[in-house]
């Protein structure tokens, strides 16, 4: 084991992702010196794959309502300190101009996530911040003199560094191949901080049993829909897969779904089947049900609906019961997922360090002065579409002001 007894860092930041990098850069701008320990061979691993490699780095309409948490309003302090406008201006100063896509999602004009990471590596170098890659945090201890001793592993060698402050920005449990770790949660528990139970979020859902084959045959088909449960609804595209359902609408609802619950699909949210059938009848009703449905859905989906609907019946010949069945199936298609695809397919983790354990102005532990938690390891899980990045930037910024 090697030791570094010099207290040469204002803070040790564990995790070189979005929160950790922003924290290091902002601390550097204030003349503070930090050490970032990153377990991967390069920083920003999840940034690089986000948005299909394009990096949806914020959302223009971010509020606490876009977060799943035991206390979503906890985020308001950070979001008022570091706003979406601050994020946009920060990146523009570094040469990254955003372009808005659907629902307020902001991407770099270049469509290259690596440009976002390059901003931080360049600024860290400029401000004298130290980055150690392939450095996996293994322990955080607080000494009697108030300092922290952080142990980390590098190629089988355990080294130790000291600091007055430690920032846990090591993310959550998705995705193992990108260095996902429960280290922040373990550290929180070791210091007797409450941790909200965790689960995969923004994750595809699986279908098993008698309906599995029906979903599998539709693999690759996408449909715009409204998906909802008792607490929330989303209108976006849904994708059928050979193991169940994915796509933005499903990823969004997954953050609110619990095993055993049913979700409902409105496959035609901007139309009413009753009115469409009525209009067809007024014009003679000579078309088949399948022909009417083909106006809105793929041929494969229409054919598959034959399992539930009289698709080969002329609309003029539909009984009242048939018409009601069509409307119910299209607008209230109930699904009971068997489970989800787990952390390796999840974009983020739900749950984490309880917000009541942290000072909302600084994200410092109330019980352990000098210990900070930011980003994904906190119980603050954003929707799909740049919200989690905005939380990462904001939490990294407010911590940097405090360390």
Q: Number of helix segments? A: 13
Most strands sheet: 7 strands, antiparallel
CATH superfamily of the largest domain: FAD/NAD(P)-binding domain
**Global shape:** elongated
Radius of gyration: 25 Å
Text of the CATH class of the largest domain:
Alpha Beta
Low confidence ranges: none
N-end to C-end Cα span: 27 Å
CATH topology of the largest domain: FAD/NAD(P)-binding domain
- The average pLDDT score comes to 95
Indicate the percent of residues in helices. 25-40%
Question: Could you explain how this protein is built, in words?
Answer:
It is a single chain. With 403 residues, the protein is α+β, with helices and mostly antiparallel strands. It has 2 domains: 2-197 and 351-402, FAD/NAD(P)-binding domain, CATH 3.50.50.60; 204-341, Translation factors (Elongation Factor Tu (Ef-tu), domain 3), CATH 2.40.30. It is 30% helix and 24% strand. The protein has 13 helices and 23 strands. The strands form 6 sheets. The chain has a 7-stranded antiparallel β-sheet. Strands 8-3-2-12-22 form a 5-stranded parallel β-sheet, with helices on one face. A hairpin with a 2-residue loop joins β10 and β11 (157-163). α2 packs antiparallel against α5 (113-126). The radius of gyration is 25 Å and the shape is elongated. The two termini are 27 Å apart. The mean pLDDT is 95.
């Amino acid at each position: 084991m090697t030791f570094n007894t010099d207290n040469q860092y204002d803070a040790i930041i564990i995790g070189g992702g979005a929160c950790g990098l922003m924290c290091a850069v902002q601390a550097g701008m204030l003349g503070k010196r930090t050490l970032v320990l990153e377990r991967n061979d390069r920083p920003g691993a999840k940034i690089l794959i986000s948005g299909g490699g394009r990096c949806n780095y914020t959302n223009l309409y971010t509020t606490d309502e876009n977060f799943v948490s035991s206390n979503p309003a906890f985020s308001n302090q950070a979001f008022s300190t570091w706003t979406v406008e601050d994020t946009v201006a920060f990146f523009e100063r570094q040469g990254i101009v955003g372009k808005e896509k659907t629902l307020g999602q902001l991407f770099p004009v270049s469509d290259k996530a690596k440009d976002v990471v390059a901003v931080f590596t360049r600024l860290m170098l400029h401000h004298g911040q130290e980055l150690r890659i392939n450095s996996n945090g293994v322990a955080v201890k607080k000494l009697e003199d108030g300092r922290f001793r952080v142990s980390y592993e590098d190629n089988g060698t355990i080294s130790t560094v000291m600091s007055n402050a430690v920032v846990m920005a090591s993310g959550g449990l998705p995705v193992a191949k990108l260095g996902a770790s429960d280290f922040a949660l373990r550290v929180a528990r070791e210091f007797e901080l409450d941790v909200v139970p965790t689960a995969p979020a923004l994750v595809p859902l699986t279908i098993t049993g008698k309906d599995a084959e029906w979903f599998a045959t539709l693999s690759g088909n996408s449909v715009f829909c409204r998906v909802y449960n008792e607490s929330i609804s989303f209108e976006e595209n849904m994708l059928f897969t050979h193991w169940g359902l994915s796509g933005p609408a499903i990823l969004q609802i997954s953050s609110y779904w619990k095993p055993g619950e049913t979700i409902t699909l409105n496959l035609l949210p901007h139309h009413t089947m009753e009115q469409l059938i009525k209009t067809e009848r007024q014009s003679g009703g000579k078309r088949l049900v399948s022909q009417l449905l083909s106006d809105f859905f793929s041929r494969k989906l229409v054919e598959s609906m034959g399992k539930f609907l009289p698709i080969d019946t002329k609309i003029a010949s539909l009984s009242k019961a048939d018409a009601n069945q069509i409307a119910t199936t299209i607008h209230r298609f109930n699904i009971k997922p068997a489970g989800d695809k787990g952390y390796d397919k999840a974009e983020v983790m739900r749950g984490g360090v309880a917000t009541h354990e942290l000072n909302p102005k600084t994200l410092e532990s109330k019980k352990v002065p000098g210990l900070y938690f930011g980003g994904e390891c906190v119980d603050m899980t954003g929707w799909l579409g740049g919200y989690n990045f905005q939380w990462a930037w904001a939490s990294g910024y407010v911590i940097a002001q405090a360390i």
